[in-house]
Design a protein that fits this description.
By secondary structure, this protein is α/β, with parallel strands linked by helices. The protein has 9 helices and 14 strands. The strands form 3 sheets. Strands 5-2-1-6-7-8 form a 6-stranded parallel β-sheet, sandwiched between helices. A 6-stranded mixed β-sheet has the order 10-9-11-14-13-12. The chain has a two-stranded antiparallel ribbon with strand order 3-4. The radius of gyration is 21 Å and the shape is globular. The protein binds NADP nicotinamide-adenine-dinucleotide phosphate.
């Protein structure tokens, strides 16, 4: 073929879309035309990508005509409807939503872990995992390759932007209502100040943490928690892996943090875990608590890698490690992983 493929960014005006346009402007330019698409609400806007203002088109069949690769950065129900249409028109779809992640005919790809999976795509769709799975999977996958993971117990501290632009707007609005006040020292005072404007969150997020995200599933689990389990199993090719996740919203704009208890088949040492993490692509080891060196979301926001600190061997289990992991949910947790997949597909166009 040897031509530059045409790329469509469907959902270019959302939280992930905005970061996608930055990344497309920063990465080596492997694309021919780049077409920006959203709902009718944002059609006509002219965001900048690759240094040029580019008009946003409304999503319809015409907008998908002649597209080689389509990045879908839209709500799940929109992806469920439109990704198959784009694929039927000949595009390879890279979908960021949860719509196809567990479809056995759709690969779920993290290029640092299972890059080969991108080529087996019978539906013409490749899925990118959720932001919480992506926050931990690159580091855990690297340790798994050496030690063989047998169980994960994770607590995720999720940023507001994983609920999209609405989440960011809601958190910023709530923070402006509580700033400079003495709120937070009597029950319900924050809730009264914030009023009904919880936005996409189950309770006020300013001055608070909320042990809920997603929708209710059997047994009291949330959809977010079950996704971490199912997606991790699929990516690592370990359908029986024991995974228990708790997802909590915290008043952070962007960048997820995850506390991980990882149990392995073999004995582990912190020294060897450090070596593995320090040399794994996509991972930065930042682990010197005596010097105050450990990742925080405020420090890693806007960066690409998975940051790992607080690496300890479990006190009561020589085969288990404790880690604290941070990663930008809009970059590696969404746009960057999707663009890495799309660039792997684009490379196929360069082969004669
Ligand atoms: N945020 C994260 O951290 C994160 C991480 C991993 C995966 N994801 C997934 O990525 C997707 C996008 O998330 P987001 O956070 O960017 O959401 P968002 O901020 O709400 O943006 C949604 C985007 O979808 C577009 N859209 C909505 N309805 C549409 C329709 N009917 N037709 C065409 N376009 C439509 C919106 O266009 P308008 O501007 O016209 O409304 C906007 O561009 C979701 O599936 C989400 O689950 C998000």
């Amino acid at each position: 073929m040897n031509r530059k493929p045409t790329l469509a960014v469907v959902g270019a005006t959302g939280a992930v879309g905005a970061v996608m346009l930055q990344i497309l402007s920063q990465h080596a330019d492997v694309w021919g035309d780049v077409r920006l698409i959203s709902s009718k609400r944002s059609a006509g806007r002219r965001p900048v990508v690759r240094g040029e203002e580019t008009e946003v088109l409304a999503l319809d069949e015409d907008a998908l005509e002649g597209v080689d690769v389509a990045l879908f950065l839209v709500p799940e129900e929109v992806a469920a409807q439109w990704a198959p249409i784009a694929a039927a028109k000949g595009a390879v779809v890279v979908d960021n939503s949860a719509a196809f992640r567990m479809d056995p005919d759709v690969p779920l790809v993290v290029p640092e872990i299972n890059p080969h999976a991108v080529r087996a795509r019978p539906r013409g769709i490749v899925a990118s995992p959720g932001c919480t799975t992506l926050a931990l999977i690159v580091a855990v996958g690297a340790l798994h390759a050496e030690f063989g993971v047998s169980e994960l117990v994770v607590s995720a501290y999720q940023a507001a932007s994983s609920a999209g632009q609405d989440g960011v707007t809601a958190l910023r609005g709530q923070l402006s209502l509580v700033a400079g006040t003495r709120l937070g020292d009597s029950p319900g005072d924050v809730r009264r100040a914030v009023g009904d404007d919880g936005g996409p969150f189950a309770a006020p997020l300013a001055l608070n943490v909320v042990p809920w995200s997603g929708s209710l599933r059997e047994g009291g689990w949330s959809s977010e928690e079950l996704r971490v389990r199912e997606e991790t199993r699929k990516i690592l090719g370990l359908p029986e892996l024991r995974v228990s996740a708790t997802c909590v919203r915290v008043p952070v704009v962007t960048a997820h943090s995850v506390s991980v208890h990882a149990k392995f088949e073999n004995e582990v040492t912190v020294a060897r875990a450090h070596e593995i993490l320090a040399t794994s692509p996509g991972v930065v080891l930042y682990d010197d608590p005596a010097a105050g060196d450990y990742p925080t979301p405020a420090d890693v926001v806007g960066t690409d890698p998975t940051w790992v600190g607080r690496v300890r061997r479990a006190l009561d289990d020589e085969r288990a490690l404790e880690l604290f992991v941070c990663g930008d949910n809009l970059r590696k947790g969404a746009a960057l992983n999707a663009v890495q997949i799309a660039e792997a597909v684009a490379a196929e166009f360069a082969v004669d």
